[in-house]
Design a protein that fits this description.
7 strands, elongated, alpha/beta, Chitinase A, domain 3, Helix Hairpins, 5-stranded mixed sheet, 2 domains, two-stranded parallel ribbon, 157 residues
Amino acid sequence: MDKFPITVNGERKLREELDHLTNIDRPRVIDSISIAREHGDLKENAEYHAAREQQSFIEGRIKDIKLKLSNAEIVDPKKITTDKVVFSAKVKLFDFESEKEIIYSIVGDDEADIKSSMISINSPIARSLIGKVEGDIALVETPSGNKEFEILNISYE
């Protein structure tokens, strides 16, 4: 399997989630299953089935996080020394359509959160920015038509 990029902060959040699932959620759901078993007939025991379903979700998520962490290539933005837009860049843009400045951080798929201005490296905007330098114009193809952005500033924090 190929390595996929993740920021230091993204890796920390995944490890925190793994720790929480392993040490808090997993034991809690195991206790719930034990308590539900004591209520008798398992075929018609809704509490038991709900707890088992939750256990299945937790175990699947633990497996997923472990796989992601084992295949992650951790990128520390503070160690990047380039004037081009690459993974983990914080990019200040001028949107010609709205005539507003916007800032995006380019992160891994699991870290992407548009509400926090964090866009996936695989998003159309990020793909159009990669390799560009300050002053360049990026053309992004969107379903509603092409959008143009001017790169005002690139930083790595």
